[in-house]
Amino acid sequence: xxxxxxxxxxxxxxxxxxxxxxxxxxxxxxxxxxxxxxxxxxxxxxxxxxxxxxxxxxxxxxxxxxxxxxxxxxxxxxxxxxxxxxxxxxxxxxxxxxxxxxxxxxxxxxxxxxxxxxxxxxxxxxxxxxxxxxxxxxxxxxxxxxxxxxxxxxxxxxxxxxxxxxxxxxxxxxxxxxxxxxxxxxxxxxxxxxxxxxxxxxxxxxxxxxxxxxxxxxxxxxxxxxxxxxxxxxxxxxxxxxxxxxxxxxxxxxxxxxxxxxxxxxxxxxxxxxxxxxxxxxxxxxxxxxxxxxxxxxxxxxxxxxxxxxxxxxxxxxxxxxxxxxxxxxxxxxxxxxxxxxxxxxxxxxxx
Amino acid sequence: xxxxxxxxxxxxxxxxxxxxxxxxxxxxxxxxxxxxxxxxxxxxxxxxxxxxxxxxxxxxxxxxxxxxxxxxxxxxxxxxxxxxxxxxxxxxxxxxxxxxxxxxxxxxxxxxxxxxxxxxxxxxxxxxxxxxxxxxxxxxxxxxxxxxxxxxxxxxxxxxxxxxxxxxxxxxxxxxxxxxxxxxxxxxxxxxxxxxxxxxxxxxxxxxxxxxxxxxxxxxxxxxxxxxxxxxxxxxxxxxxxxxxxxxxxxxxxxxxxxxxxxxxxxxxxxxxxxxxxxxxxxxxxxxxxxxxxxxxxxxxxxxxxxxxxxxxxxxxxxxxxxxxxxxxxxxxxxxxxxxxxxxxxxxxxxxxxxxxxxxxxxxxxxxxxxxxxxxxxxxxxxxxxxxxxxxxxxxxxxxxxxxxxxxxxxxxxxxxxxxxxxxxxxxxxxxxxxxxxxxxxxxxxxxxxxxxxxxxxxxxxxxxxxxxxxxxxxxxxxxxxxxxxxxxxxxxxxxxxxx
Lengths: 352, 500
Hints:
The complex is a heterodimer. By secondary structure, chain A is mostly helical. Chain A folds into 2 domains: about 1-40 and about 320-350, no CATH class; about 60-215 and about 240-310, no CATH class. Chain A has helices spanning about 15-40, 45-55, 60-85, 90-110, 115-145, 145-165, 200-220, 220-230, 230-235, 240-270, 280-290, 295-320, 325-340, and strands spanning about 5-10, 345-350. In chain A, strands 1-2 form a two-stranded antiparallel ribbon. Chain B is of the alpha/beta class. Chain B has 2 domains: about 5-235, P-loop containing nucleotide triphosphate hydrolases (Rossmann fold, 3-Layer(aba) Sandwich); about 250-330 and about 415-500, Rossmann fold. The interface between A and B is medium-sized, with 20 and 30 residues.
C-alpha cells in the first residue's frame, strides 16, 4: 500500500510545537556550517558560544535578561497592537520618544527623591510613546490611512528630531559629542542584583507584559480588541466601535514601547545617543510574531532574542571571528525560526 | 451537429447535487439563455463546460467530438471562452496588457505592438475598448467589454456570459446587448446565464431552464412567454402550505420611509423603499439575490447608512444609529452571512457576550463566570452542539446559526431582522430556525424575513413583499400569494407589476 501525506491547516499537537525551536536550531546549524567552515571556524564551538555560553555564568545569564528588557516591552507593545489588528510598525519610533522623554526628565528631576522621580520618568516615557503613536492612530481612525506606512514613517521623523536635539541644544557641553547630558543620579534605575547591570526596568517590563495579558484576557476592552483583530466585519455587526478600539489600542501599544526607551536611558546608558536602539522596536515585531501574539509567548521570545543577541557578541569576542559572522548566524537563526514557527498551524495527515 | 452538446451531466458537491443529469445543446450562431433561480445549477454547468469543474458523470461534445475539458486552457483551445461574474482583470495593467496576458507568444512584449493588435481586434469584433487605458480607470461596463474582447482575442466561437447584466446600469445593458447581437451575426454562439425574464426574452433565441439542478426543458423564444418561463423556473409541483393567517391588528413596529442606499460598489441598490412591519406578524421579503435585499438587511442592522430616507423603530428614527444602539433598542439581528455575525476565531461564549458586553462587565472587567453561565443556558435552550469554549469557526453552519439566533432572540426583541436565516442549513436546522421565528411572532414580535427561498417565504410570512432591482414591486397578503405570482414579480415581469 502506498502511503501519502498531506499538509493540513490545523494546529499541530503541543509536543510538536515544543519541538519546533530545536528543529530550527538544527536547520540553522546545517545551513551555517558551510559558512563557518569557510571562515575556518568550528561550527560546534560557534553554536556553543551563541546558545549555551551566555547561560553558563551568572554574569552573562543576567546580561541576557538585561538585553531582553527593552525587547520584552516592545514585543508586548507589538503583541497588543497586532492581536487587535492594528499593525503598529512604529514601536521603534515610540521607543525613541520614550527615550527622549527620559533623557529630558532625567536632567530636570535631579532635585527630587528617586521614589518620586523614577515613576514620573516612566509616566513621561509612556506619554511620549503615546504621543508618537497618536498621529498615525488618528489618521487611521479618521481617514483610514494605512497605519503600516504612517507608523513606519514616524520612526524616521523622530530619528531626525533626535539628531537635531543631539547636534543642537543637547550636545554634550564637555566632550562636544552628539550625546545628551548625563541624567541625575536620583533618576537612574536601581540595580536589582549586585555585580550586574540588571535594573528595575526588567521588573517594569515583566509588569507591562502581565498588563498586556490582563487587558487582552480579563477586560471587556480586551475582548473588543480581539474581536476587531480576528474579524472586523463581525465585530462591527456586533456593535463594537472599531475606530475607538483601534485608537485606544494604538495609544497603549505606543505607551508601552515608550517605556522601553526609559529603561534603556535610565537603566543602562544614562544619556541618549542616536545609536541607543539596537532596532528594539523592529525586533519587537519578531518577538511578537515568535510568541504567536500571546503576551507570555512574547516574553519568552524576547528572552530568546536577548540570548542570541548576547551570544552573537560573545562569539566574535571569544573566537576571534569577524563580528558580522556572529550577526549572520543570529539572523539565520531568526529567519529559520520564523519560518519554522509557521508550521505550528499545520499538521501532517496521512491520506488514505 | 451542435456547437456544444452536454449529455447527462451530473455534479455533486459533497451531499449537494448541483447538476442532475442535465442535457444542454447549443446551436452554432445562437444566443442561448440559461435561466434559473439562484442555486439552480446554471453557473456550475457552465463552469464544467469551461473546465473549472469536472463533471462526475456525463459527456461533453464539442462540434460532435467527445471532449474532455480539464482546464480553462483546454476550453479555450476548443474555442470556448467565459466571462465570469467576478472579473479576472489586473487593475494596474493596461487594457491591451490584460487582453494579451497569458496569450502572448515568447517572452518579449512590445507595448506599442500589443496595443496595435488589441486595437485591430477591437475594430474587427466591434467591441470598443481604449487599449492603452489602465483597467483601474475603467467603469464596470467598460471592464466587461475588456473581458469579452479578452475572450474573443483567443479565437473562440462559443462565449459564455455569467449574469453579465448583474453589475451594469441600464444604459450599459443596452450597449452589451447591441454588442452581443452583432457578434451573433458574425457567427459567434453565446450562452447567456440569467435569472431576469425580460432580458432573456429580449436577447435569446432559445432558452434552457434549470431548477434544483435539473433541466426542466429547452424552448424557443417564439414559443414562449415570460409567464410560461416563470412557471418553469419556480413552479414546484408538490407544494402546498395551508396555514392559518392571523388577523393583523397590531401596532406598527418598524416603519421604513423612502430609503435609498448605495451598494458597496457605489451603485444605487435601494430605490425609495417604504414599508411597515406590525407586531405579531412576519413580513417576508422575496426576490432573486442581488436585487437590494442584502443592502436592506444591512441598512436595518445599522451596518449601512442610507443616503436618504428614514427608518422608524416605534417613533425613534434609527437610520443613523450604530449597531450597538439598534441592539439596545430591542432589535434582534440575524445577518445574511453568518460569518459576519460571529468572529470565527473567538469562542462561542465570547461571541454570545460581545453584542451586549455591558451585561457581562463590571468596571470594564469581564465577568467570565457570568459569561460562562449565560452561554451554558443559551446552549441548552437553543440546542447548540458546542461547548462555551469551542472556537466558533469549528462549528457546523447550523450550530453557528443557532449561536447567532440565541444571541439575537434571547433578549426578547420587539423586532427581528432575519436575512437568509436558513441559507445553507440542513433540514433539521432549517426547521428549528423557522419554528423559532414563528415563536417570536406568536410572542408578539415583528419579524422581517428576507429570503431567496420562496418556500420559506410562503410558509412563514403573513404578508409578502417582492424586491426587484432595488424597488418594492409588490406587497400582498400571504393568502393572495402564489409561487407563480411571486416568481413573475421577482423576475421583473411587467404585466404582473400592474396587477399587484
